[in-house]
Recover the amino acids of this structure.
């Protein structure tokens, strides 16, 4: 098995951020036709992303001194930033042809538009997104409102003030290149209920049953 380059993997892939109880998820769309500007913004953002290596004191992953230096500048005890791109976002960065290596589910998305208004689309049927759960009723990412989502910023902070400042900083940095969608997606742990998040899970522990 090849060694995983943890310094090149985002921290959220490996662990939750149990020490950062406040979070915000910023949906955005590219709004610049300048391909260079898009890539420059993402390149600068990449330097601020929180890598899996060195994210906390218990991290024993070894990825070399250069990786550790980068990790030290992204201290998970204060804040954390991770990024997700959708198929439409990647399409504007690498082109349609390059998306052929990705799975059909990713490229097609959760809510491909219906080709026949009288029929429920196959994917909506498979996922159970029918009736009141239909993509036609979604606030974003569905068939009607804010359909096109190019990416998501996942922001985590130690308190509400720090989170507010982090959201402001990142949205200001994307101005002119991407538009943050005005939908308030915030999360926090419930301290009075065993430090659980809103689905009832304890951070970092899988409890599906």
């Amino acid at each position: 098995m090849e060694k995983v380059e943890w310094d090149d993997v985002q921290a959220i892939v490996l662990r939750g951020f149990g020490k950062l109880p406040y979070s915000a998820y910023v949906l955005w769309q590219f709004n610049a036709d300048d391909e260079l500007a898009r890539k420059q913004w993402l390149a600068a953002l990449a330097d601020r992303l929180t890598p899996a290596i060195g994210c906390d004191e218990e991290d024993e992953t070894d990825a070399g001194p250069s990786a550790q230096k980068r990790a030290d500048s992204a201290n998970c005890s204060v804040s954390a930033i991770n990024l997700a791109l959708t198929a439409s976002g990647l399409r504007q960065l690498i082109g349609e042809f390059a998306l052929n290596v990705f799975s059909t589910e990713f490229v097609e998305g959760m809510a491909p538009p219906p080709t026949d208004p009288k029929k429920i689309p196959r994917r909506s049927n498979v996922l159970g997104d029918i009736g009141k759960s239909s993509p036609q009723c979604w606030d974003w990412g569905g068939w009607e409102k804010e359909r096109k989502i190019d990416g998501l910023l996942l922001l985590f902070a130690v308190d509400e003030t720090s989170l507010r400042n982090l959201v402001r900083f990142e949205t200001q940095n994307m101005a002119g290149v991407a538009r943050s969608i005005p939908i308030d997606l915030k999360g926090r742990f419930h301290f009075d209920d065993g430090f659980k998040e809103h689905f009832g899970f304890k951070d970092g522990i899988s409890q599906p049953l």
User: Anything to note?
Assistant: The beta strands are 22-30, 79-85, 151-157, 178-180, 186-188.
